[in-house]
Amino acid sequence: MELPTRVARWPAIKQLTGRDRLGRGLAARSAHTDSAAPRTASADRVVGSVCPYCAVGCGQRVYVAKVDGQDTVTQIEGDPDSPVSRGRLCPKGAASKQLIAHPGRQTRVLYRRPYGTHWERLSLDEAMEMIADRVLATRSASWQESLGGRALRRTTAIASLGGATLDDEENYLMKKLWTALGAIQIENQARI
């Protein structure tokens, strides 16, 4: 009795009627399995990077392909040449492609006014101006020039908590900025 082609492709039928009685080889293969290729195969180039999530600094390989004339990240994997992580990534690092490719990623500045009920879009320039105005207003309102004849020249109303994923240059510039503004509570997540 001849089986219909559709039924003959079922793994259990292939296992019972073929030579692969244990179902560990050809009987378990499907057309989808045969056509599968590694997600890295379509990449035009590989770029070295560092995971942005924590202070460990695991090495990453970012696979980039041209899609419609635009560079697109197709896969991010651990870098086996990295002395830090030797090719391993934690679950967050392994999912870091979502930082740039997730459809829900915010790419515009959103602002909700005090007591507002909805978010509104702002230009980056407008948002930066608002932040600068608020920092300067807070500094002016909380400035302590001296106390009992002793020069202080500080503000205690501004604090900074830097991230461990920032490099030395970024942390140096943040420290210089906040110190120049008179802030004294300057900390970094790497020390905490």
Structural class: alpha+beta
Tally of helical segments: 7
What's the alpha carbon Rg, rounded to whole Å? 28 Å
Q: What is the β-strand count?
A: 8
Describe the global form.
elongated
Strand content: 25-35%
**Largest beta-sheet characterization:** 3 strands, antiparallel
Low-confidence runs (pLDDT<50, min 5 residues)? none
Order of strands across the biggest sheet? 1-2-3
Give the integer mean of the pLDDT values: 85
Q: What is the string of SSEs from the N terminus onward?
A: HHHEEEHHEEHEEHE
Overall helicity: 25-40%
Distance from N terminus to C terminus (CA atoms, Å) equals: 73 Å
**How many domains in all?**
3
Can you put this structure into words, describing what you see?
Helices cover 29% and strands 28% of the residues. The chain is an alpha+beta fold and 192 residues long. The protein has 3 domains: 5-35, no CATH class; 45-101, Single Sheet (N-terminal domain of TfIIb), CATH 2.20.25.90; 125-188, no CATH class. The strands form 3 sheets. Strands 1-2-3 form a 3-stranded antiparallel beta sheet, with no helix packed on it. Strands 6-7-8 form a 3-stranded mixed beta sheet. Strands 4-5 form a two-stranded antiparallel ribbon. A hairpin with an 8-residue loop joins strand 1 and strand 2 (59-67). The termini are far apart.
